[in-house]
Amino acid sequence: MSDSSAQPAGQRAGTGKGALKRTALLDAAEEILLADGYAELSMRAVAAAAGVRLGHLQYYFPTRADLVGAVLGRVLNRSLDRLQPLLAAESAARATDPAQVVRTILAEQEDPRLVRLFTDLWALAAHDETVAEAVRGFYRDYQDQVGAFLHQCRPDLTEQVCRSRAAVFTMLMEGAALFRSGIAAHRTTTTDAELLTLAATLFSAPPS
């Protein structure tokens, strides 16, 4: 028999009503992050948004760091879940169309709130090693999936080259989020076309 109080912070009551309550609290915290940014995310604000007492929130997430870590993990996992079907090894048809993969990833950048959330997370990671490790873990998984997809498209490439191209692809996509979202610049049809061509080339042809 397990004792929920002995579970790690943010992991309590993982089934039944506890899981539903935990999800509701994470939903409230994520909404504040999306709408107002990290600066406005306080434990009291989340408790108020979820309609619970502060002590109730602290039972599931004792500190703001626990809460932010749980939200971060959920957001990053959701992003990976959206990416995985596109890059799945069994999806041979999609493996022949790298441009579609690029278009799908770029389409996610049309949501300004999601882009703002990720920029907040990047900024937070620069000052918080726990968040930084979660972000690095996310990008390791992301690049692993991209690298496997690259190997499908170009089985002649070595594993090292696939890893390197996956890293470059990730850099292009994440940099594009800043420059297409209006944060650093505004996207244009011309730059989008160039970005699509350049990114898809990583999957299809060796650089000239």
TrEMBL record:
Gene3D superfamilies: Tetracycline Repressor, domain 2. Pfam families: TetR_C_6, TetR_N. The keyword NAD does not apply. Residues 42-61 bind DNA. Keywords: DNA-binding, Repressor, Transcription, Transcription regulation. PROSITE patterns: HTH_TETR_2 (PS50977). InterPro entries: BetI_C, Homeodomain-like_sf, HTH-type_TetR-like_transc_reg, HTH_TetR, Tet_transcr_reg_TetR-rel_C_sf. It comes from the Bacteria. Residues 19-79 form the HTH tetR-type domain. PANTHER family: HTH-TYPE TRANSCRIPTIONAL REGULATOR PKSA (PTHR30055:SF226), HTH-TYPE TRANSCRIPTIONAL REGULATOR RUTR (PTHR30055). This is TetR family transcriptional regulator.
